Amino acid sequence: MGIQSGLPAGFSPDVYDVIVVGAGYAGVVCARRLAESCGFKVAILERRGHIAGNAYDYADEAGVLVHKYGPHIYHTISDRVNDFLSRFTDWTDYQHKVLANIHGTLMPVPFNHRSLRLAFGDERGERLYQKLVDTFGENKKVPIMELREKNDPELVEVADYVYENVFLHYTMKQWGQAPDQIDPSVMGRVPVFVGDDDRYFPTSTYQGMPAQGYTALFERMLEHDLISVFLDVDARDLLRLTETSASVCGRPYGGEIIYTGPLDELFGLDLGPLPYRSLDMVFETLDVDQFQPVGTVNYTTSEDFTRITEFKNMTGQVLPGRTTIMREYPQPYEPGRGQTPYYAILDDANRDLYKRYRARISGLVNFHCVGRLAEYRYYDMDGVTASALELSDEIISEHN
């Protein structure tokens, strides 16, 4: 069916068995499964001018393949997620590594054997590492709260160093909070890795990058005769909900509706906005082969940005003499200002507000919320895919 900008004249929702709002992971995975498993005709309505949601990538003016909405690194322990997505792409063998710039020294994070030697000197760092091995064993992620609970002054010193230099200032920038506003339970979960594996996702069974990029992966998922994609279409202008029915384009709609957008915006924020943090992403092309040694460097003790991403280090793209980097500046999210809501602020009050919005659709048997925004939670790409596979399972079972 294809991809086009805007709705055609005389667009009729009744032609479609399913209307999907959003062309990111949640919406496209559901669309593909329902088209091929049920023979459903699917219309995808996407507010932006492109597919692939926040995973969208493109070649910038310098020819560098960049991720428009920040770095996306594929990793999962799920055989099902990997099997499904691997139908539409080959994967590179990229293994994500992150360094923290701590007072000018680049140290692996999560904090590990090499980090200890860099932070405390070779001799003392090695002795501290052996104490961690003796206490917890090798190749273990140990939350710093567990270090504190051992009541060993040296282990407490390690915990304090990691808290202060890796976690505290970075988190203050990311979430716009003062130290006394940061939940102590979150601090306690910050890990030290007792081992030499300096990958950021050492326990993920599958890691890599789509060989031709994320947008190409989505294009292949959408290659189905029963799927039509309409870009630059704001579903809020077309969709109306009551407690018992849904209408599209002013007429009752009896097919399945899969909604992946912000639930509060669908109701005009009338109970108040669901809070998020956003990011201002600043891209810069440099006339060098490589700017930094890894894909991501976190600035945990300095600067007003949180991290710098260099995309060629992740994609493996060969482009001599030019590279593009991106700095991320956290900021509050304000609806209506053209920002992207990235991180839900998940405290009790905000979860309760989400439940109040969600209660409004509880009586709609054909309206389904799925994805990071619609479920108001943080998801990695594999988590969104898993949620979409589960929802599509339910819909398929109802119709087969």
Would you mind describing this structure in some detail?
The chain is of the alpha/beta class and 400 residues long. The chain has 3 domains: 2-51 and 222-273 and 344-399, 3-Layer(aba) Sandwich (Rossmann fold); 57-97 and 199-211 and 276-332, no CATH class; 110-194, no CATH class. It is 31% helix and 23% strand. It contains 12 helices and 22 strands. It has helices at 25-38, 79-85, 113-120, 122-136, 144-149, 153-175, 184-188, 214-221, 263-266, 312-315, 348-359, 381-399; strands spanning 2-5, 18-21, 42-45, 57-59, 65-67, 74-76, 98-102, 105-109, 140-143, 191-194, 206-208, 227-231, 239-241, 246-248, 251-252, 256-259, 276-286, 296-299, 307-310, 323-332, 343-344, 367-369. Strands 8-7-18-19-20-17-21 form a 7-stranded mixed sheet. Helix 1 links the parallel strand 2 (18-21) and strand 3 (42-45). Helix 1 runs parallel beside helix 12 and helix 3 (113-120) packs antiparallel against helix 4. The longest helix has 23 residues, at 153-175. The chain is globular, with a radius of gyration of 23 Å.
